[in-house]
Design brief:
The chain has 307 residues and is α+β, with helices and mostly antiparallel strands. Helices cover 59% and strands 15% of the residues. It has 2 domains: 194 residues, Endonuclease I-creI; 91 residues, no CATH class. The chain contains 11 helices and 10 strands. The strands form 3 sheets. Strands 1-2-4-3 form a 4-stranded antiparallel beta sheet. A 4-stranded antiparallel beta sheet has the order 7-8-10-9. It has a two-stranded antiparallel ribbon with strand order 5-6.
Length: 307
Amino acid sequence: MAASSFGFRVKDELSSLAPQSKSVALAELSAVVRTGGVLTRLNGKLAVLLVTFSTELARHVRDLCLVGLLPAPRVSGRSKKQIVFDTDAEGLLISLGIFDLSSGEMKFSASPKKELVRSEDEKKAFLRGAFLGGGFVSSGKNRHLEIIFSGSKLRDYAASLFCEIPIDISRGTRDGRYTIYLKSKEKIKDALTYMGALSSSFEMLNEIVSGDMVKKLTAKNNCDMANIDKQVLSAVTQSSAIKKLDEKIGLANLDKKLETTAYCRLGYPEASMSELASILGVSKSCVKHRLDRLVKMAGEIDILKAD
C-alpha cells in the first residue's frame, strides 16, 4: 500500500465519523484547532484559519461546529481548502477551552480543561482531532504515525491519553515544535483503532499478518537451505571416505553390512539418510551409524599412515 494514500485514507475515514454529542464535538474540534489552526486578523477582527487539502475534513469541521452549537466557518478554495472562523472567534476559542476567562482575564490555556475531556469518548475525540489537525501516518517499510504540537504541555497531555489505552508512545521535537510518534505497526494499529479508524486499522493488521508470513517463510527457506547444505557436505565427506577405504583396503574386505552401505552411498551420492534407509531396509539411525563408522575408519587409516 502506498504510504501517502494510506495517510489520506486514514484522515478521510476519521473525518467520516459523525460526532455523537456536543461534548464529543467540542473535544475533537478543540484538538483540531489547537494542532491545525492559526490565529490571524481579517478586516481588523480576530480569526482562526485552518488549511487542508481534504474536502472530507472541511465538511467534518462544519459538522463538529453544528453539533457543538458553534457558528459554522467559511470554507473556500477547490483543492486547497481554507476554513475561516471569523464570526466571534474569541467566543469560539473560549468554548473550545483554548482561551480561559476563569481568572477574569483572557489567557491562553496550554492544555484543555478537565471538564472538556473527561469521558472515554471525549478522549478518543481529542486524539482524533489532534491527528486530523496536526498528524500524519505512513505504512509499509517506513511505517510511522506522528502528531505535531506547538507546545510541550499539550504534547505531554496527548501522550498521557495514549498511555491510558495503554500505548507506550515516544516523544520528540522537530524544528522547534513538539511531537509524539509511533513506529511499531502493532502500536499504530492500536492507535488507529482507538481513534476510530477501524478500516485503516484492519488494513494495517493485514500488513502485519502478511509480513509475519513472509518472515516465517523466509526463515523456513533459510533453514531448509542450511539443512540441504549440511546434507550435501555429509554426503561428500562420506563418499570421499568410502573411496579411500576402497583404495586402501578394498570394500570387499569390510563387514558385509558396511560394504552394502558403502556401495549404496556411492550409488546414490545425493540421497538423504532417510532415502538410504529406505533402500537398505533399515532405520535412519542405523544408516547414520554405519556411515559414521566408515568415515572413522578412513580417518584411522590416515593416522596409521602418518605414524
